[in-house]
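quick one, 212 residues, struct below
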Amino acid sequence: MHKERSAEVCAAEASAKRLSWSSLVQKLSHSLDSDTESNSSRDDVSDTGSVSLPDLSTLDGDMFFDPMEESLCKEVVQLIAHSLIEAKDCTLHCSKLLIPEKLLEHIGQELVHLAASEPCGLRGALIDLCVEQGDSYKCAGQIAADPYLVPTFQLTLVLRLESGGIWPKIQGLFAAKSSSTPAIKHALKLSTGFRVIKRKLYSSEELLIEEC
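---
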């Protein structure tokens, strides 16, 4: 009788551990893989998520604010996110790309900042997307803020991959396994830090490089 109770207790503990592990995986997935229901409860936007930006009118009061510029900025950031997601298979060679929402917010703020001194504002921007992978750079696309306007300045966004923190330890949880092949295509997560290079197309001024 005592042995039967011990077996029941062990089985219950094993079941609890399985539930605890399952709960942990679900929590990690919820925090790293985007949930589009609430800005406050999500940290990332993935290939299944949508992009949501804060009100850019809350930026530095000394910066010129134009509602049309804010609207265009949101559209451009949407295009940037979609271009990155489309590049995950052929260019970045990953099964899933996790894009931190803070990264998109910082990109939007930087676009407004760098376009403020331009004659056509953000409409004159030509944006090149690059992802730094080791010693090489992968081109993830090019975006014209206004395809009907001749660009007045060019921005090159150099994005980086996340390599620190807890991400390397749990990266395998987001890997895609195929039943037909034992190979695993890893998920990638972008860092919130990036480099932007600005070049004016109507003058011979030196390049402006900013670390964000």
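The mean pLDDT is 75.
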